[in-house]
Amino acid sequence: MSPRPERADAARNRAKILAAAGEIVLARGVEALAMADVAAAAGVGVGTLYRRFGDRSGLAYALIDEREREFQASFIEGPPPLGPGAPAPARIRAFLHALVDRTVAQLDLLLMAETASPLARFGGAYDLYHAHLVRLIEQAEPGTDAYCLADALLAPLAAPLLAHRLRAGRATPDRVKAALDHLLTGMAE
To answer: Which sequence positions fall in the DNA-binding region (predicted)?
Structure first.
């Protein structure tokens, strides 16, 4: 059974809420993303916001969603080397580099979303990234423990760790990419 289409008024409210939340984040940062402020700016009741998004992390995920969908489309069906058509090692490298850029671009929102609960990072997008890397690693290095290696490659891209390293000045996105490239050095081209 396919999901019911969204009512027109619900779609308008969703668009108003996301626009208001986006403006607040842009103007004042993620820390200022308070449900009452978003509801007031969107002209909807706070209850509508809670029913629709649950909490701040749910609202953060909704703000992340569009860019996430674009990113997923790029590695699932986009042009090589990120998309199909390139050798597996080149695709792994392109994927990890693009994921660094994607994470940095929405770091504060991802940080909020990934720290909402102990396992908030896992599931959804993470599971897709993991499955994608497992498949590519198995192609590049048959017989390797692709399942655990995929987690090892994704670990440095956790928003809390990346935010900590970038803000402490101990890493840059280019340095993270170079380190990931070093880990991939042994993979056959």
So the answer is: 34-53
